[in-house]
Amino acid sequence: MAKGEKRDVGGDGEDVAVVLIGHGSTLPYNKEVLEELGRRIELRGIFKAVRVAFMQLNSPSIEEVLRTLAKDGMKNIVALPVFLADGAHTTEDIPEKLKIAFEEAWEDLGRDVTLTYAKPIGVDDRIVDILLDRVKEATAGE
User: Fold this and answer.
1) Considering its fold, how many domains does the chain have in total?
2) Is 89 a catalytic residue?
3) Which of 38, 60, 90, 103 has the smallest number of CB atoms closer than 10 Å to its CB?
4) Side by side, which strands form the sheet with 17-22?
5) Positive or negative, the Cα torsion across 107, 108, 114, 120?
6) Does a structural domain hold residue 6?
C-alpha cells in the first residue's frame, strides 16, 4: 500500500475517532512509537480523529483522551489496544479504564458516545513479514 493511501476499514470512518492505547513506559521511545503509529494512521485520512492514550506511566491517560474526544463532539470512538496479544491488561485493566471514563461526574458527557473496544493485534501474516524482515536485518551484518 502506498504511503498515505486510504484503506477500506469496513465503513465510513469520517465520523469515527480512534484511540491507540499503549501500556506506557519510563522509556521515551515507547511513547514515541505509539505517537508515530497514530500520526501514520492520521495521514491516511480515514478517521475524523486519531489519538494516543496510555494505561500507565505516560500521559495522556485513557480517561483523559476519551473525555476530551467526547467534549469535542465525537460520538463514535474506537479504543484500539496496541498490544500483541490478549492478557490481563487487554481483558481487565483497559476495559475497566474504558468503563470509568464516563462514570459519575462524567456520565452525562458519555451518554451519547458509542465506545467500541477493538481486539489486540494477534497473529497475522503481516506481522510474520515484519518478524522475517527483522531476522534479515539482524543477520545482514554477519
Assistant:
1) 1
2) no
3) 103
4) 49-54, 17-22, 76-81, 114-117
5) negative
6) no
Task: Indicate the residue type of 2.
Answer: A
Contact criterion met (CB below 8 Å) for 76 and 66? no
CATH number at residue 115: 3.40.50.1400
Output the tens digit of pLDDT for each of the chain's 142 residues: 344 444 555 556 779 999 999 999 999 999 999 999 999 999 999 999 999 999 999 999 999 999 999 999 999 999 999 999 999 999 999 999 999 999 999 999 999 999 999 999 999 999 999 999 999 999 997 6
The single-letter DSSP state of residue 93 is I
8 belongs to a structural domain: no
The active-site residue out of 13, 16, 22, 23 is: 23
Interatomic CA distance for residues 34 and 84, integer angstroms = 13
Q: Element (H or E) spanning 78, and its range?
A: strand 76-81
Is residue 5, in this structure, part of any structural domain at all? no
Q: Does any domain span residue 77?
A: yes
Report residue 133 as a C-alpha cell.
524482515
For residue 13, how many other CB atoms are within 10 A of its CB? 20
Q: Where are the alpha helices (DSSP H) in 28-139?
A: 28-43, 62-71, 88, 94-100, 107-110, 125-139
